[in-house]
User: Fold these one by one.
Assistant:
Number 1:
Amino acid sequence: MKSLLIKSSTCATLALLFLFGTTLSASAQDGRIQLGQLEHLTAKASDTITVNLDEKLMQIAAKFLSGADEDEIKVKELINGLKGIYVKSFEFEREGDYTTADLESIRTQLRGPSWSKIVNITSKKDGSLEVYLMSDTSKLGGLAILVSDPKELTIVNIIGPVDLDKLSQLEGKFGIPELNVTKPKNKPRN
Amino acid sequence: MNRAIIHGLTILVLLMPATSAAKGDDFKMVVKTIEQFYNVKHRSLPFLAKAGLKTATAAARIAGGTPKRVAEAGSVKVAFFEEQEFIPRGKVSDFRQSLTALLSNEWTPFIQTVSAKGEEQNFVFLRAVGEKWNVLVVTIGKHEGVVVQVNVSQQTLAQLLKDPDELGKTITDDATIVDDQE
């Protein structure tokens, strides 16, 4: 009877782990990364910003932005086809208020075959900037940006096809912070 | 057959007011949640109007555009919490979670900002109502708070979405600041 109980609980645990894993990977495959595990940082942070622009809101923004204003025309073109923009940003008073494990919980989701790390800048003084692009064309597409320094952690997740060359035009809009992300140049052939 | 149709129509008629009442109650529920969590009491707009404060006539400027009213006429609901000590009954994160849970069925949490260990909090929730959108803004400071709910058109919402950081302030200013020029 006891072994049966242990077996049942093991099976249930495995089933839960499987379900949880499937949800995480399926979500990351759709271009959406999970940020809920960072909620505990809100209590430590001096400032927290969370922005959720889902598909319905993106459609409204794309549909009703003015077609007369030159800047809005560009933005309209950029957001057409996007399925969501999600931003989470923390500022801390002290160093060490967030850990490598917090960062890893995001990176783990971006290690799948669909994602490619296209920018990786690390500086002891200024922190690091990582840009991941969902390069699998059969998928929806997406972009994930991780900005971290000892007192700041920002994650930007854009769902849908993103043109990196034009990403800067979205900075400062729809909750996307100024990131100064540029598309890496191809290495010259020898 | 006729009885079935009448029965169906009766259920439909009974459900309609219930649905609209449920939509209208969210504002009150949010105000009540703040009162319970922070041990404060709100003042509604009619009370303040009697005390000499004019109702909202501010013209808000959206993303550098021409000043114009944001909220649809007659759609503004406001509850003020003034000169009171906001003493949380639990963690600030508990408040955020209870607010989100309260509105999770119909509302989308669009933006949340929590600053300086919960001394200032802003929440903006959005809900589609036909062709219009309800915008619910909750702002809580150390000694003051305000809850605003307005209806906006899709065009207005599109403009507001461009600058989420300013959305809550724009809506709140539109609903509460008295414009001396009018």
Number 2:
Amino acid sequence: MNTKIATKSDLDRVRGEARKARTAKPVEITVCSGTGCLAAKSGGLAAEFDRVVALHDLQHRVEVRRTGCFGFCERGPVVVIHPHNVCYLQVKEADVEEIIARTIVEGETVTRLLYVDDKGRSIRALEDIPFYAKQSRVLLDANTKIDPTSLDDYIAQGGYGALARVLTSMKPEEVVDLVKKSGLRGRGGGGFPTGRKWESTRNAAEKEKYVVVNADEGDPGAYMDRSLLEGNPHSILEGLIIGGYAIGAHQGYIYVRQEYPLAVTNAQLAIDSAREAGLLGKNILGTGFDFDVKVHRGAGAFVSGESTALMRAIEGFVGAPRPKYVHTSEFGLWNKPTTLNNVETWANVPLLVNLGLDQYRAVGTQGSKGTKIFSLVGKVCNTGLVEVPMGMTLREIVYDIGGGIPKGKQLKAVQTGGPSGGFLPASKLDLPVDFDALTEAGSMMGSGGLIVMDEDTCIVDTTRYYVNFLAHESCGQCVPCREGLRQLSKILDNIVAGHGKAGDIEMMEDLCELLEGASLCALGQTAPNPVRSALAHFRAEFDAHILEHRCPSLVCKSLHHYAIDKDRCPGCMLCVSACPTEAISGVRKKPVVLDQAKCIKCGNCMDVCPPKVNAVLKLPGSPKPATQQPVVTT
Amino acid sequence: MVSFVQNLGSSADVVVIDDEASIREGCRQALESEGYRALLADNGIDGLEMVKQVRPRVVLLDLRMPGISGVEVLDRLPGIDPRIIPIVITGYGSVDTAVNSMRRGAFDFISKPFDVDALLNTVGRAMKRYEETVEPQPLAPKAPARPATEPDAILKGLEAVGEFYQAGTQGSLSETLCALESEATYHARKLGRIHEKKKAVGELIEDVHLVDRVVERHDFRKNALIQIMLDLQSEKRWLPRHMLMWLSRRLNIPVARIYEVAHFYEAFSLEPQGAHTVQVCLGTACHVRRGPQLADSISSVLGVKPGGTDDKLQFTLKQVHCLGCCALAPVIKVDETYYGNPSLDDLKAIFASCEKKEQER
Amino acid sequence: MNTVRLTIDGKSVEVDKGASVLDAARKAKVDIPTLCHHPKLEPFGACRMCLVEIEKHGRKRTVASCAFPAEDGLVVTSSTPKIERMRKLIVELLWPAYTTPAKGMKIEKSRFTGALPDCSLCGLCVRYCRDVVKKNALYFQGRGVDRCVAFVPGMAHECDSCRACFDLCSSGWVVSRYAAQASADYDERPCFPGMTEC
């Protein structure tokens, strides 16, 4: 698209044309092309659709559209066909011929690719699938409809309409006021009131100002921002330009972690096409407002997601936090007033302008307005990205949307806030998703990672995982964080190895006091959260590890072992080839022998042993030192 | 794309590589009027492919093109056929760029907008030069006691000394070159090829050129340091010491700062990498779905510790925090392909196919 | 007005605008321990020994006094039981690299091991070389628990005439490493010498 959009009426005209173009072909096949589905080979899938459509000479009637992430990652690749409004799941290249022949040509449904609910009913429409039915996908909906590399698609959906309204009919102070009144709070984890942040930056004396998008998304298990930036980059750009206008900044930066190559590419494409159309650069929409954006790639450090560290990285230095007690709204990038907000926060801005104050505030709780996107992952049936109104309970998210725990297991805990957050036990499932409620309960909203854990998860092991993560991701500048985490790590390593001793918990609590009270930045200050919440809610597991040298969930390597039940093993030898260290040996029709010295406890043998045979056992404690396997009778 | 190149006839006299259609056409008409056979390409990659197939005598080459730049094409031409005479087309009145390109092997330059006579005159001289080029000598069967081109090398050295002092340096060129030689030794040792110092010097020069190209792409901006290093890491797959030191020189940034950045971030590798990178995701979702056990399995199968590379430089194993494909957990990435919850058989098949690729190379 | 007036441990003191709470404490002769502070260097905030409790608008906070700007009306308490606990823990965590305040705190040994024995990572050497001497011969290598100080290859032998960091290093790393590094440099002289003027 090379047309220049120099005025609001140009935008209106282009929107009309784009809408017409989108409906030019009667049939549309949308194929999810977010990183998750691409990893599940949806790239080849879309190409196969292209090929078969061309083969049947249907290209004039059928549009194959590669879109952003649909969010139902557990069942990807996801394909939705319009106007049939049928949603196919886990589609493979081999299914394409059939879909074209039966659905496109004959108008029939390929039932085996439909979602089946727990009552055995097949569901055709995406919005009726339980995973989607309870969500409020105001931000993510566009992901299923637009090609992220197409500016036209974004405009057809109403994109840049909010920007046009703001630039032509609102004063900058009015925009700041709107954001303040909306109650929008930062979606990156802190939950700081966005309007207040914008106002402080706007009021700073220095004329040169900056706005920054934090797309570092360092919390492991969280990928909401990636999907937004990959799937709908223009929505973030629009929010950023509006923010620049409101604050008085003319230069924006998008800091994206380099581990998200597709997000980097799509963000840059969006910037280039917006600039070409005149929506970035000088005199946007003829209003005299100049604004431009650069992409800066991160180089792989969790701590660089902290706002002062991120700004240092953009300046070309090591991305470590600054010790000075300054507000970045006054002394930020190059010591100039800067507003840094998370991707999802920026995406909320055009939404707010389009909905208006009343409609926006109608969703959410008293203290937390709007929706929140979560990455629902871990031991949950429907892993994926979900967008829910603030105030929905964790129970509804995990069970109604997430479909509960697979394999009939019991939920043990839900973890939010990443390494700065905490464990919430099953008893807290009725907590609403709300900034203050979650913080009060000992966790925090965080950026949106929602990890579900079941009875087979060891909380002590998971706590150690978080502490180890932080110990290596800490910038290492200040003593409480670096040395505090070093010692916490050691203590937890000892506990999971069965060398815990009395006094360990008290020492961890002392170290936590130091971390919280003395650390230079929020990484260290919030590092105690996983430890404290684990101790508060799962003390019994810690006591078992420390006092009894026992891991109740049979996860900690030194505290359990595998054994072969000789009475049940028929000698089929399936496990022999599944063992990466060749620890299992034997002859056909005789029970196999497990060499404990070679066993790395990967569990492959247990996975491949047929359920009816069930001859591999996981037992607490160390194996008996005898060279022969103990004879176990069941 | 390049499909037409495969159907080319045996030869052409001139290949024109320029992204502007009007320039390409203008050149073609002028050249054909003089009886030359000309072929056209609109980008560097296709142009190089064409040159490989057709072996022209002269290449007309635009310096500023998107994608692979004219300078890069210029650097690669001698590798295809050292007799090809390159002529660069420059716009924007930059004499510096033109002179620089001549130092890099261009025979002459013409500035846009050019007139037909000037173009034909330059091409004519280039054709004459081509005819005068001596056929390259085959290697003598025994290594000669004194290389045949020693006087040429000395002459080059003298010219370099002259340039060095013209640049206003206070130091001694021979000291610097001595240090450079020992840097090549260090590099050769690092790669386990101590007897291949000649190769190491060649790599050193290539790497230094790479740094220059990337730095130029970012307009020599100091605050683009991390972006520049990411580009270098992406092209070379690791950052040898001499590249970091050269980068310090080019950007005028203390080496200490560059080292600090190189050591701080996960993206940068300071050791040579294996031909294939295996990344095991250790994000929380993968951890909870037995990612560590999968990591142990892979470590066992490859015989490599996390963060390490095997002795044959085939595989580098990395543990990373979150590839963001949590529905496939536990996830691994081998080069650019993702695999969710691979079984032991899956892993063995994947690694075997990687090894096969190396054997075929 | 170019000055501000604040109260530290009950003593009223006036300092220039832009001075830190630590500067004000020194002026008021209130003793606050520091490790990574140096009058010629920007505050680094690494050791956290200089923590104090401040009260502003009725709100109490614990902050690093070397980095917190002195403000009009600030009420500062240089030590509280919690701050003492934290200072003690810091000394223990850095043991034996930082033992200077140990006697005053009645610490004779540490419950912990694993920290670098001869380097507290106070960064005085790196920062002084970078910002005062401007030779950039040292840098922080790595991140988190893997962090340490290192000489830039090829620079150590240039330090012969300077050695300003030797006096700054209370734990001994720089002195003990310098000789080894200078010798390693000689064996493996890296390319492009004369980088100091960058």
